[in-house]
Design a protein that fits this description.
By secondary structure, the chain is of the alpha+beta class. The chain has one domain (about 45-225): Adenoviral Proteinase, Chain (3-Layer(aba) Sandwich). Helix content is about 35%, strand content about 10%.
């Protein structure tokens, strides 16, 4: 057998054959985790659109760029990232196991021209959702519906201002991925200072000139290495 060209749908074909043989529909077996070998090509040959979004400083991340991060998490950790496509259909959002912590990136339209990504953390011990963003950020109905559907036992939602905050208007996706990675790796963005200091911000002593290009470079590094890596402090 040519290992390089194995049939990735072999188990699906076997199940279809079994249903035809039994003349009866039956549920397809579900894998507990996303297998990296099935999605490796997405990281070995990153789509040009995703590369352009990551490497262009004034370009906000789109859904495709965030979804690639979701797939990386699904394949390499015990966390279950829900596809951003579910935000359009909150009634289909899978209910989370309330005994486990959970991290999600919510990505939805704020208005006709602008979308905003933000990171949330569900703490199972307190049944609380922490939103890592500025408190004045509007939780849209789509995001609210997602949270209520995902965590039916939720007691409260509270905003947490991260130690490193977004200073521009286009890098919410990069910051959300940085916060989510930090949480998944066992740290708290409210105390974990991300390395974004530019020469100008160091000279002026102000975070106003922080440079999110460092976050973008690290995200690309994670995609190419196919694993989560701690963001530099």
């Amino acid at each position: 057998m040519n290992v390089k060209n194995q049939d990735k749908a072999i188990h699906l074909r076997e199940h279809i054959f079994e249903m035809l043989h039994n003349r009866k529909l039956s549920p397809f077996p579900r894998s507990p985790r996303l297998d990296m070998k099935y999605i490796a090509d997405s990281f070995n040959n990153i789509h040009p659109d995703i590369l352009q979004k990551i490497t262009t400083p004034d370009q906000p991340f789109n859904v495709r760029t965030v979804m690639l991060f979701n797939r990386l998490v699904e394949a390499t950790t015990d966390f279950d990232m829900v596809s951003t496509l579910f935000y359009q259909y909150p009634e289909l959002v899978p209910v989370h196991n309330s005994t486990k912590n959970d991290v999600q990136i919510l990505y939805a339209q704020q208005n006709r021209w602008k979308a905003h990504a933000l990171c949330i953390f569900y703490e199972a011990a307190n049944q609380m959702v922490y939103v890592y963003d500025r408190e004045y950020i509007n939780i849209t109905s789509a995001k609210s519906d997602f949270i209520e559907r995902r965590y039916p036992n939720l007691k409260n939602i509270t905003f947490v201002e991260p130690k490193t905050i977004q200073m521009d208007s286009v890098s919410c996706g990069a910051y959300s991925i940085a916060y989510a990675t930090t949480l998944i790796l066992g740290h708290d963005p409210r105390t974990y200072k991300l390395k974004t200091r530019s020469l100008l911000s160091s000279i002026c002593g102000s975070s106003m000139f922080d440079d999110p290009k460092m976050l973008r470079k690290h995200i690309l590094k994670m995609y190419k290495s196919k694993k989560l890596l701690p963001f530099p402090k």
